[in-house]
Amino acid sequence: MKKIISGTTLEAVQGDIVNQPEVEAVVNAANAQLTMGGGVAGAIHRAAGPELEKECQNKAPIEPGEAVVTKGYQLPNNYVIHVLGPRYGEDKPEAELLGKAYQNALDLAEQNNIKSVAFPAVSCGAFGYPLQEATSVALCVIADKAPQLDLDLIRFVLYTQEDLEEYQRQLSQLL
After folding, report:
1. Distance set, CA 85 to CA 13, 28, 172 (Å)
2. Rounded CA separation 39/48 (Å)
3. Which residues have a Cβ under 8 Å from the Cβ of 96 and sit 6 or more positions away?
4. Are 77 and 25 in contact (CB under 8 A)?
5. In whole angstroms, what is the distance from residue 34 CA to residue 57 CA?
6. Number of structural domains the chain divides into
7. How many angstroms separate the CA atoms of 23 and 41, rounded?
8. Which helix (H) or strand (E) holds 2?
9. DSSP 8-class letter at 62
10. pLDDT tens sequence across 31-61
């Protein structure tokens, strides 16, 4: 499913975040130390190779809502934008911190002249953020920020069919 807002195409697809060769940057749902970890962070670090971990050492730790950018190394993408989303029920206020993570990732894309970016469902895995709420936060932030963006494509890469359906449902309701 695709939707265009202020000249930026938003789309939701089911797939693997490390296999998005059409985008310049992928977003890593990182941990505070920017280390391999599990889930999205583990997949990105394994695919990018050990050089990513070395570059990340100089940029860690980060706080919930913060974002940093690195090279993509062995990924098919030029960049990785690492964001630390909030742990649901622990990092307060969750919605504000999650929104900040998306805003900061988009700001880094702009600052680095990145025209296309792929996001996972930040904070929805091990950090326990309910998918419906997290999707709403992500899409609201992006819709609000879209008029100021010079991005051609924002892709949401969802791991499960259920996740994809929720993003598609909410994307279809965006004005």
Report:
1. 21, 10, 25
2. 14
3. 65
4. yes
5. 7
6. 1
7. 18
8. strand 2-5
9. -
10. 999 999 889 999 999 999 999 999 999 999 9
Rounded (5°) CA angle 95-138-141: 85
Burial (CB < 10 A; 0-12, 13-18, 19+), residue 165, is middle
The conformation of residue 130, written as its DSSP 8-state character, comes to -
- Mean pLDDT value across the chain: 96
- Residue pair 28/46 in contact (Cβ under 8 Å)? The answer is no
Rounded to 5 degrees, φ, ψ at 138 are -60, -50
Query: Is the backbone peptide bond immediately before 61 cis, with ω within 30 degrees of 0?
Result: yes
Q: Look up residue 116 and give its amino acid.
A: S
| Cα dihedral 146/148/149/150 (nearest 10) | 130
CA dist 60 and 54 (Å) reads 11
**Domain of residue 26, CATH code:** 3.40.220.10
Average the pLDDT over 85-109 and give the result.
98
Give tens-digit pLDDT for 134-146: 999 999 999 999 9
Overall average pLDDT of the 89-117 stretch? 98
Q: Which residues are 158's β-sheet partners?
A: 14
Give me the domain span that covers residue 156.
2-173
- Residue 7: CA count within 13 A, CB half-sphere: 8
- The CA distance from 113 to 93, in Å, is 30
